[in-house]
Amino acid sequence: MILDRILAHKRAELASRKRIMPLNELEKAAQGLPAPLPLAPSIRRSGELAVIAETKKASPSKGILCKNYNPVKIVAAYEQAGAAAISVLTEEKFFLGHPCHLVLVKRAVRIPVLRKDFIIDPYQIYESRALGADAVLLIVAALSPALLAELTKLAGDLGLSCLVEVHTERELSQALAYGAEIIGINNRNLHNFVTDLSVTFNLIDLIDLNKITVVSESGIKNKGDILRLKERGVHAALVGEALVRCAEPGQGLIKLTDFRAGG
Ligand SMILES: O=C(O)c1ccccc1NCC(=O)[C@H](O)[C@H](O)COP(=O)(O)O
């Protein structure tokens, strides 16, 4: 499956990155940076559905999404259009992102910035902090229970929020058992890339929404989807493709969330 291929590549990439930038250098780079912004308060807006607007050039399922990709311009437009937080893909081979995009994006906005990557090693948590991330993605399907616990603890110690991603009931139980406070329900099946919002609707009933912040991720395409998620009590929607494919991604976000306009 694609996740296995991505993770194999990530392991090789990490080995060379650790040689180029040793951990103690990364720790030094993080010193003196402002404290990360907490993600949960930004995306828990009473009665509203917040949007985490994602910037990415490409994806394994859809190929190139945005030809003249300028993540700084995109995220500035997202913030102006009312995004609650930004998600930035930093994975290089499959999404054509880059860690530098995170540095540039963080400088361009005042809302929390999530590093969207495939995090499988404590080194990447230190790296995310040094690059200026406020939050990191932890994918339960990519981690052993012990590693999930270790990375969650380390991220917390460094002040980073964790979006803990699940796709099945089993993964959700694991995430909750390891103290996840923000759960991302991924609507995308990583075996066949099919997205289905009923993944969110099935799992949300198993979550105490007073205690846990819930983000629905992937395949959210229009205002109808946003309304259905809002009605079920989801706190935030993470939207990528539907926005970056727009000639004006900020306008795309406005259209997606403006319930007075048609469409
Ligand atoms: O998007 C993919 O093809 C993909 C494949 C394998 C692992 C992860 C993948 N996507 C990462 C994401 O989580 C999405 O970028 C994110 O949820 C936004 O989804 P969308 O709104 O459908 O672009």
Description:
- The protein has helices spanning 2-20, 23-30, 39-43, 71-80, 99-108, 122-131, 145-157, 169-177, 198-203, 223-231, 241-244, 249-257; strands spanning 50-55, 58-59, 63-64, 85-89, 113-116, 135-139, 161-166, 182-186, 213-217, 236-239.
- It is of the alpha/beta class.
- It has one domain (45-257): TIM Barrel (Alpha-Beta Barrel).
- The protein has an 8-stranded parallel β-barrel with strand order 1-4-5-6-7-8-9-10, surrounded by 5 helices.
- α2 (23-30) runs parallel beside α6 (122-131) and α4 (71-80) runs parallel beside α12.
- The protein is globular.
- The mean pLDDT is 95.
* DSSP summary, beta strand count: 10
Total domain count: 1
Order of helices and strands: HHHEEEHEHEHEHEHEHEHEHH
CATH topology tier name? TIM Barrel
Report on the biggest sheet: 8 strands, parallel, barrel
Rg estimate, integer Å? 17 Å
Count of helical stretches: 12
What is the chains' assembly state?
single chain
N- to C-terminal distance = 36 Å
Ligand species: the ligand O=C(O)c1ccccc1NCC(=O)[C@H](O)[C@H](O)COP(=O)(O)O
